[in-house]
Amino acid sequence: MTPKYSFIIPIYNEEKTLPELYRRLCAVMARLDAEVELILVNDGSSDRSLQLLRDLHKQDPRVCYLSLARNFGHQIAVTAGLNFARGEAVVVLDADLQDPPELIPDMIEKWRQGYQVIYAQRIQRRQEGWFKRFTAYVFYRILNHLADIDIPTDTGDFCLMDRQVVSVLNAMSERNRYIRGLRSWVGFQQTSIRFERDPRYAGEVKYTFRKSFGLAVNGLVSFSRVPLRISTYVGLLSAVMAIVMAGLVLYWRLAAAHSPLTGFATIAIAIFFLGAVQLVSIGILGEYIGRIYEEVKGRPLYTLAEVAGFHKHTPE
Ligand code: UDP
Ligand code: MG
Q1: Is the domain of 116 the same as that of 237?
Q2: Which ligand sits closest to the CA of 92?
Q3: Is it the case that residue 315 has pLDDT exceeding 60?
Q4: Does 190 map to a domain?
Q5: Three state DSSP letters for the chain
Q6: Atom of ligand 1 nearest to the CA of 94
Q7: Which of 123, 179, 222, 306 is placed for a possible disulfide with 67 were both Cys, Cβ 3.0 to 4.6 Å?
Q8: Quick one: which ligand is closest to 75's CA?
Q9: What's the pLDDT tens digit per position in 138-195?
């Protein structure tokens, strides 16, 4: 029998939170009307997480797990879970209990009302450092401004998606997966649920500044071509500036007693400015070209080391 609901949870070194996560999920599952499959995706953990997953699977047939052959990153771990999920409604949540599982019945209620994507939108980030809050705030606003699609602000990956949406996501072959962006891109009836984000239950944040920055660049480059246009705009601006300067120099040479524009500083500034503009433009170009290269190689998104709990082992 196929379960009605799938919960997908990426796990990366979460041995400290797993028992509590399982306890709270069990309480939520007991309140639901139909069968649930818990898909725990081990993203190359180096602690005892995988062993805990094996134990849970032995105890409880609702627990299925995938183990990726190395750390592929959060977005890919979720993608692997989506590939294997069989439920009619699929919920994605973090393992650290920052996404309260108790919200899931409310999401399911909205799903019954006919919505196909119900994403959780945080109204507050309790006890996250000011730096993370500030950078997240700025990033989501920039992204919203530049992206071709409307990506709702302050949403993470915590959401419920209908089977129809999951099928579309599974059919997308792109390697650089920014799931919250793709989720907006597909369309369908979407709605939000507001919630307060709790602090991480235990363990360290796995998203280092580097990973968060990578995710942010990924989101921008995947959903906006505006950065490519920046160099065009700056180039045009420089051209206008050069024409104005030429006019000024000509005027000073002809009319003024001595030109105020002579000297090394002026030339040095111009060289540095244009050099910087060119290097940044090349960097931006490289970002897009690198992505084309990634896509063209066509490697699988992840490699699996272990799969358990699914009756048939072929993902969609
Ligand atoms: N995670 C993962 N692979 C990674 C990093 C994180 O699967 O390389 C998982 C992690 O176990 C957690 C979720 O992604 O379930 C979110 O990670 P975290 O709480 O560290 O990030 P944040 O709350 O800062 O978004
Ligand atoms: Mg977290």
Answers
A1: no
A2: 1
A3: no
A4: yes
A5: CCCCEEEEEEECCCCCCHHHHHHHHHHHHHCCCCCEEEEEEECCCCCCHHHHHHHHHHHCCCEEEEEECCCCCHHHHHHHHHHHCCCCEEEECCCCCCCCHHHHHHHHHHHHCCCCEEEEEEEEECCCCHHHHHHHHHHHHHHHHHCCCCCCCCEEEEEEEEHHHHHHHHHCCCCCCCHHHHHHHCCCCEEEEEEEECCCCCCCCCCCHHHHHHHHHHHHHHHCCHHHHHHHHHHHHHHHHHHHHHHHHHHHHHHCCCCCCCCHHHHHHHHHHHHHHHHHHHHHHHHHHHHHHHHHHCCCCCCEEEEECCCCCCCC
A6: 15
A7: 306
A8: 1
A9: 887 887 777 777 777 778 889 999 999 999 999 988 888 888 888 888 888 899 888 8
